[in-house]
Amino acid sequence: MTKPHLICHMMTSLDGRIDCAMTAKLRGVDDYYATLDALDAPTRISGRVTAELELALPGKFEAPANDEALGHEAFSKKVDADGYDVVIDTHGTLLWKKTEENESPRLILTSESAGKAYLAYLDGLGISWIACGKDRVDFARALEILAEEFGVKRAAVVGGGRINRGFLDAGLIDEVSMLIGPGIDGRTGQNALFDGRAEDSDPVAVRFKEVKTFPSGAVQLRTKF
After folding, report:
1. Cβ-based neighbour number of residue 215 at 10 Å
2. Of 144, 151, 146, 113, which Cα lies nearest the Cα of 129?
3. Is the pLDDT of residue 96 over 80?
4. How far apart are CA 43 and CA 23, in angstroms?
5. Cα→Cα distances 170→55, 88, 173, 202, Å
6. Once rounded to an integer, what is the mean pLDDT over residues 33-42?
7. What does the pLDDT average to over 180-194?
8. Which of 35, 58, 71, 123 to pair with 204, CA 20 to 30 A apart?
9. Using CA atoms, how far apart are residues 31 and 20, in angstroms rounded to an integer?
10. Residue 175: C-alpha distances to residues 36, 39, 151, 165, 206 (Å)
């Protein structure tokens, strides 16, 4: 299989929680972005919930009454770039503005259930997209298309926990880069670095590759499979 080298890079509290509002209060939050840049993975992949909070415009796309699902695999490439800001939006609901000149070009991953009107909306904004997988995004196939059609060689998955888990369960992550901030969350019900695996799942074995400390008190753990 042809795919980018895929790194999961996240900041967590000591107890492995990833809530962005919480991690923003931890010492070392600035080290997160520096360590992400140091991974040399200019394409970054995030999920719909993360994008809703941090990237997308308010509201949802309103499809016309006669809209139809795309119903087959396809992609639309608007620009060649060294890296893309990839967002997984399974059914095509998020609203966007045109990408600014100083921003990485956006690329939306949807399933084949996304509406034709939504994909036309993305085309009108000059936003690239990939549709693969019947009712949910086929992560393996999406990575193949990113590598073969968009030239992506290295990518970082940056959450949330269920997106991270999806790539993990599919065996697509090559390494994990975990920046642990010096603080404990401890609140009930908060998402973890990898979240939502089946109750009968066995632990996924990893090997530690590198440990690095920062003056802020944060610690970066890098592991490989």
Report:
1. 8
2. 146
3. yes
4. 22
5. 26, 16, 8, 14
6. 96
7. 96
8. 35
9. 14
10. 13, 11, 20, 13, 9
Question: Which tokens belong to 12?
Answer: 């967590």
119 closest CA partner among 83, 55, 67: 67
Place of tokens 């059609």: 149
- Residue-wise pLDDT tens digits, 55-64: 889 999 999 9
Short-list 157, 158, 161, 156, CA closest to 193: 161
Token pair recorded at residue 87 = 């967002």
- Separation CA 70–CA 116 (nearest Å): 5
First to last CA, the chain: 17
What separation in angstroms does the CA of 7 have from each of 40, 72, 164, 175, 178? 10, 29, 10, 5, 10
**What are the C-alpha distances in Å from 21 to residues 11, 146, 160?**
12, 30, 13
57: three-class secondary structure by DSSP: strand
Nearest to 50 by CA among 197, 162, 128, 170: 162
Contact residues for 88 (Cβ-Cβ < 8 A; gap 6+): 45, 46, 47, 48, 109, 110, 137, 163
Inform me whether the pLDDT recorded for 51 exceeds 90. no
Alpha carbons 129 and 162: distance in angstroms, whole number: 21
Helix, coil or strand: residue 128: strand
